[in-house]
Design brief:
alpha/beta, Rossmann fold, Alpha-Beta Plaits, six-stranded mixed β-sheet, four-stranded antiparallel β-sheet, 10 helices, transport, ATP hydrolysis activity
């Protein structure tokens, strides 16, 4: 639980009154643009950084000052992971496991969990980016923690590696672990998270399940037809159509009553190539944080 935590650097309010509670076994995501305060928030909760004010309770304990009683119960994967030089994947994991008194068998089981059993004897610096990320997560999990913190675990991965890592994260949660993570990938958060908190400029702007946040946006459904299927004027005349516009490729219809609109299009025989696009978590994110790019 985080209650009104704050952290400033000079005039920058990196974390500005953030509060949230994560339930046991929950997959909780913290989303936000660059500089939103996600990583700082996570570091305060983990006990890696001291808040200026506010209160954090982690598994019934105060994580700051660094609490040795919590260390065996939490696993942390940082944005940038460092490994011991010239060690294989197996040796890396055995080394991390030895810090917690974990036996070799358990460490190897974790290597299998993240899909690196066949890479056990490969040096860490010869693994792909996705494999290194999975090894990093295995190191965070090797001592069987109750809560796992993952800071942008799929950043810079190719689509296939990201999807493979999703399976790992699902398996971790299926084992009863609580997962708190940050990400830039809205499609990922919508699929994986039970609840998300959307942050910007150090504050939480919205927090709920992805489906509830999308419903609350009350965004229109977009029906996309091939250009020339019907005219823009015909589309605008259909009952329930709020807006219709055409570009060089397609005709897009906006409606909050998709059923009668689709029925009318079916009667006109214009369903070939039709696409229906409902609102997503990305729409909620952009609605709350704006569309301006921030490096």
């Amino acid at each position: 639980m985080a209650a009104d935590i704050r952290k400033s650097y000079g005039e920058l309010n990196a974390v500005d009154g953030v509060s949230f509670t994560v339930a046991e076994g929950e997959f909780f995501g913290i989303l936000g643009p660059n500089g939103a305060g996600k990583t700082t928030t996570l570091e305060i909760v983990e006990g890696l950084r001291q808040a200026d004010s506010g209160h954090v309770t982690l598994l019934g304990e105060n994580p700051w000052p660094r609490n040795p009683a919590l260390l065996p119960r939490i696993g942390v994967q940082l944005q940038a992971s460092s490994f011991f030089e010239k060690l294989t994947a197996k040796e890396q994991l055995l080394t991390f496991g030895s810090l917690y008194g974990v036996g070799d068998t358990t460490a190897m089981e974790m290597l299998e969990l993240v899909g690196l059993g066949d890479k056990a004897d490969v040096r860490e610096d010869r693994l792909s980016g996705g494999q290194r990320q999975r090894l990093s997560i295995a190191c965070a999990l090797v001592h069987d923690p109750d809560v796992v913190f993952l800071d942008e675990p799929t950043a810079a991965l190719d689509p296939q590696a990201r999807r493979n890592l999703w399976d790992v994260l699902r398996e971790i949660q299926a084992r009863g672990k609580t997962i708190v993570y940050t990400t830039h990938y809205l499609d990922e958060a919508e699929i994986l998270c039970d609840r998300v908190a959307i942050m910007d400029r150090g504050r939480i702007l919205a927090m709920d399940s992805p489906a509830t946040l999308v419903r609350g946006l009350d965004a229109p459904t977009q029906v996309v037809l091939q250009r020339g299927a019907i005219s823009t004027e015909q589309a605008r005349a259909i009952n329930g159509v709020e807006h219709a516009y055409e570009d060089d490729v397609s005709l897009t219809i906006s409606t909050r009553k998709p059923a009668p609109v689709l029925s009318a299009l079916a009667e006109r025989g214009t369903l070939d190539g039709l696409q229906v696009r409902t609102a997503t978590l990305e729409d909620v994110f952009l609605h709350l944080t704006g569309r301006e790019y921030r490096a």
